[in-house]
Amino acid sequence: MIIFPPCKINLGLHVLKKRDDGYHEIETCMYPIPLCDILEIVPSEIFSFTSSGLTIAGELSSNLCVKAFKLIQRNYSIPNVNIHLHKQIPMGGGLGGGSSDGSYVLRGLNDLFQLQLTDEKLQQFASELGSDCPFFICNEVQLASGRGEILEKFPFDLNGYYLKIINIGIHVSTKEAYANVKMSTNPFKIKEILTSYRLVDFKNQLTNSFETSIFKEYPELEELKNKLYEDGAIYASMTGSGSTIYGIYEEKPKKTLENNEVLFELVIAL
Fold first, then answer.
1. What is the pLDDT of residues 49-63, one digit of tens each?
2. Which end of the chain is least crowded, N or C, by CB within 10 Å?
3. For residue range 199-245, what is the model confidence (pLDDT) as tens digits?
4. Catalytic residues
């Protein structure tokens, strides 16, 4: 079985407060985009996980693909598998690639072994892996609240626009981002902004709470956001708690950076 875990951008992200359980209360709109990793899952006598493409840091036991398999095997006694991940989505970039990989292992195992788990049940398992993981079970535009696991389908469409996403290779860990984040002072909820304002007005209304502290630490990211506006973006932002910057355009944009400045620069017709 070969499947293609996608990633997402955040349209606005408000960090509202730190909760008693140590997590943060947030609100955001997650929008799926077709930049994908590649996962192969095949039955095997012994369990194994291998990877290619971008280097994946950390211990094997902390990898979300491995955790997802162990979680399902504990609950349903499925046989062992070999998982191979070809990694194309940068880590620490706020695109949710690791969360997507873990969730797609859940989805893949459900299909491969005909477990007949509902999306709701898969989302329950995904929430045990991480806050962003439940989003990728359905992989459609959704509002997220709580610590990110409370999801609401949301009819927001960027069809007809172009999306440019740029990553210059800076890795921002989620732990680092939340340790320094400034709580949102935006008086409007994300849903209200996306519903009430035109896209051209988002520049002054739709904010990401992580930008203040991360731009202070990595000023080149703020410079990159400004470059996208200079290039003609009608809205530009950092996505998630990571370092990827995106711009939304009415016309297909040209390249912003020279090849030696960038890990990747991708233009997608939405």
1. 999 999 998 888 899
2. N
3. 999 999 999 999 999 999 999 999 999 999 999 999 999 999 989 99
4. 8, 132
CATH fold of the domain at 2-153? Ribosomal Protein S5; domain 2 (3.30.230)
The single residue listed with the structure tokens 């999801």 is 151
Residue 195: left if φ>0, alpha if ψ -120 to 50, beta else—which one? alpha
Query: Which residue type does 169 have?
Result: G
Alpha-carbon gap, residue 80 to 72, rounded angstroms: 11
Closest-CA residue to 53 (of 29, 88, 18): 88
Going from N- to C-terminal start, the domains of the chain cover: 2-153, 162-269
Residue 184's alpha-carbon distances to 12, 181, 208, 211, in angstroms, are 11, 9, 8, 11
pLDDT digits (tens, 9 = 90+) for 111-157: 999 999 999 999 999 999 998 999 999 989 999 999 888 999 999 99
